[in-house]
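Before a colleague's protein record goes any further, I have to sign it off. Alongside the sequence sits a line of tokens, each denoting a local backbone shape. I want your independent view on whether this chain really folds as the tokens say. Where you disagree with what is written, explain briefly why. This is what I was given:
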Amino acid sequence: MIAPVKSSTLRLVTPIAVLLVAVGVTALLILSRPEAKQREVEPPVLYVQTIVAEPRTERFRIRAQGTVGPRVETSLVSEVAGQVVARAPSFVAGGFFRKGQVLLEIDPRNYRAEVARSEAMVAQARTAIARELVLAGLPADEWQRLRKLSIDDSELEDLALRKPGLAQALAELESASAMLEKARGDLERTRIRAPYDGLVRQRRADIGQFVNAGTPLADTFAVDRAEVRLPLKQNDLPFLELTPAGAEVAPEDAPRVELSADIGGQRHDWSGRLVRTEGVFDARSQVLYGVVEVDDPYGIDAAASAADAGWQPLRMGTFVSAVLEGRLARDVIRLPRHTLRPGDRVWVVVEGELIEPRDVHVVRRDEAWVWIDAGLEPGARVTVTPVSNPLPGTPVRVTDDLDREAVAQRTAAQGTGP
């Protein structure tokens, strides 16, 4: 009689049998799988844009910023005392005036009376001189008779010819003439005249106000020329044609400067000349300030404002950007700043569409461009597209050869034009 299988043994054998069956099926599938096809994976191709290196003659352009200020600024003060009785219509804040124009008039009545009194004193002094001259002529004959008697006394001679009286009369005439000149000057100073063509920045006196000598009347400045102080960095000085200290240069020979400012959302431009430098470095910023002059900033004498409807005056206090005309550099290659890699190196595309590094010598660099005079052969194609972790001999595909004008337009659109 067969002994029955225990349930515990059955539970142990069943999982093992299932596992063996699964292993067998898996082995059968592995042995019967088709052979995998292998193929070579091509490395990814880098697409780059290039610019052709072309040596040219370039004029360096230095950028700076500054604030427009007056060439001459004056605080008008009264030289005489009195009540202001009249003023010019243009004697207001922002009013223009011409040289010699009467801006204010102080009550002149007292000063006219002083002129009349001084004129009378001069007339009296002239009369005294005439009288002394007539009296001096009477004893002259008698004095000649005394000399024949061998009486030679110089003091007696002076008294006889009335020289002391004549000298006193002449002194009184000189004193009266000086007082008359002062009185006329004071009368003239009651009319406050403009010392130059200018503009009133602030008015400090008006009709009816009593002023003393030394009382401020107005703050004014000249409008024939404006000045802009531009900070020039030490690295930029070798590329500027600066006038030697103390030397005079004609305005037309001074370096040109183009100024621009954004007014009301529109760009406006003006031209000036770098006429001088201040001669010392600023102790804090270590920059040298150059002074740019702009002729007729308010367009008073020029026809620019009438010819151009969009023309704007260069008002005092305007913050402007400046581009200074620098020295000429011959046979240099200008490239966008981002093409220069650390260590003054650029990457070029050589035959076979491979990239190779080139060590270059940089003449000058700014925030947008670099100028190279050695290390690149003419016609070399420099990569403009940034390549991360490039290796010599890496294959690339050139999508476009950009010309200088296209790169310049792109750079100018980013606000860093040449």
User: Anything to note?
Assistant: Residues 42 and 341 are 28 Å apart (CA to CA). Residues 155-161, 413-417 have pLDDT under 50 and may be disordered. The first strand starts at residue 46 and ends at 52. The chain is about 25% helix and 35% strand.
